[in-house]
From TrEMBL:
Pfam families: SpoVAC_SpoVAEB (PF03862). The keyword Glycoprotein does not apply. Keywords: Membrane, Transmembrane, Transmembrane helix. PANTHER family: STAGE V SPORULATION PROTEIN AC-RELATED (PTHR38450), STAGE V SPORULATION PROTEIN AEB (PTHR38450:SF2). The lineage of its organism: Bacteria, Bacillati, Bacillota, Bacilli, Bacillales. It comes from the Bacteria. The chain crosses the membrane at residues 6-24, 83-112. This is Stage V sporulation protein AE. The keyword Membrane applies.
Amino acid sequence: MIFFWAFVIGGLICVIGQIMFDVFKLSPAHTLSILVISGAILDGLGWYEPLIDFAGAGATVPITSFGNSLVHGAMQEAEKHGLIGVVTGMFEVTSAGISAAIIFGVIGAILFKPKG
């Protein structure tokens, strides 16, 4: 059943993004920003963790999870280190994923030739 709910929730997040493109004619940058901010707001309200528990990868794979990670890391580090923890917490939690994306992107660019 977890696969079903992951598919439904992940698909619903993607449908929301597609509606932003098609109906509201938002640019990819605006859509991306809105989805990241939505994930951040949901985590700030304490609603994103239950969504992750319910949907698993359906909630952790879409870009809304990035906003969740930023706020989650900032809040955890703020409790430990105060105001400076807000800044360091965002980078600490997300640095591995961002670094991996950069490294694999460079490797892909070296190994494969783009079709032009």
